[in-house]
User: What shape does this take?
Amino acid sequence: MAKKRQNYLEGAAILSATVILTKLIGFIYKIPLFNLLGDRGTTHFQLTYYVYSVLLAVSTAGLPVALSRLIASSRAQGRPNQVRRYFRVSLWLFGGVGLAGMAVMLLFPGKLAVWAGDRMIAQGIRALAPAVFFVCVISAFRGYSQGFSDMRPTAVSQIIEVVSKLVFGLLVAWLLLRQHQPDHIVSAGAIVGVTIGLGISVPVLWLMKRRLDREEGDWGHPDTPDSVKSTLRRLVEVSVPITLSSAALSLVTLLDAKLTLHRLHHGAGFSEELAQTLYGPYSKAMNLFNLPSAIIVPVTVSVIPAIAAALARQRGREAREIMESSIKLTNLIALPMAAGLAVLSGPIYHTLFPVGETDVGPKLLMELGIASYFCCVYLITTAILQAAGFEKYSLFALPLGGLVEILVDWILVGRPEINIFGAPMGTLSCYLFITLFNLIFIFVKIKERPNFLAALLRPLLCTLLMAGAAWATNGLLHRALGPGRLKEFVALAAGILAGVAVYVLTVILLGAVTKEDMELIPHGGTIAEKLHLRSSHETR
Assistant: This one.
């Protein structure tokens, strides 16, 4: 049988640490790039990624999740041969889907660019085409290792991708800028680093899989695997609803971008150049909006196989405890980050993006900061539904949420006095709507459902105290120091430090984290003792 494996929170910790590192490197990449490209160039860059993300969602969103869940269930049942068959079948399936996605981007870049609402991004779409194939193959390896609750391969491949994007992407963009190429060509060059990084990750993950198989050794009793046809059918049955859900959300994001530009131009009466200029700050703010959800994604990746394995063993109480821990962890991370983006939106935006043709960014970031919390709750509730075998129900919520976003954008963005500020309101409406539907499905369909209210109250109170401390500290120092970018950065740093200190202190004093929670992470028991954390029955 296998040697020691990470439990799901260990896996979440590994991937969360990786996300923090990759996001830090990503900021080093994007901040100077966005400042060099300007607001219009940023729009070209972001729209290229939106087209890529739609094909990426179709190619990878449901397949690795389905594979990790099915492998976790087969391992829990002691079926090693079925585990191997799932991987082999998925590798061929993923590779075929990736080739199809790559062909679409190579053959029809111009049509995709026009469809996205920006005819200047065709070169960027072509540069990202091989990335779709590479990431599909990578997803097979990631899904396999995640089914073993081993998040190291996923973490390694993410680091390779972002470092390559930084090194090769910025290098190519710099060389193109020196040649005085237009901004849409520079943005296409910056994207090349993604394709290179994914290509490098494929052989690395293959080597890591071989190592994982050696560590696992022989386990379980020899079993007769299901037929290839039956295995393929099961993969498709589980993955299609998840894929459609994620693809629908990515498609809505792309349609939202196209609709926003259209309404700014034809509804509000702005020129095409001004519409693209206004959308640039929104794209910059969206990158900060995505930061909390990026840290929550590792939690969802880790929790799905853990819940699936517990349910396969008919351990309902264990599954419920994992659900509650993941929801509490989501709230402890997402609430303070969302509040921080909202109350410190001005200094954060001006520190990161001092170069801009408009000053709409801070208000956009404030609205998106609030929306980021509901995006995180949507992710974790969707993961719970998927792990419990109710992935089809998320299909009902996503299209309706997308329609809500499109409707809000159509009405608000088209009004000249609101214009681009209507776009984050549409995003907030979408995720709030989807979250409410997911909660309803969980309460109706899952017998051993988690206690959402208990997982929310203490983190919310700690967050309110933190937000007050951060806002007050930043404001007082800003007034005392006066104007200037360096002084604004000092005030921002002091506000963040004050907020973190208050949050950590209140989390401990109010018992938002218990001994039992800490025991689920590596060396958590030792940390709980040093912090004098109370047990769960003492905090009730």
User: Anything to note?
Assistant: The radius of gyration is 23 Å. Residues 8-450 form one domain. The mean pLDDT is 82.
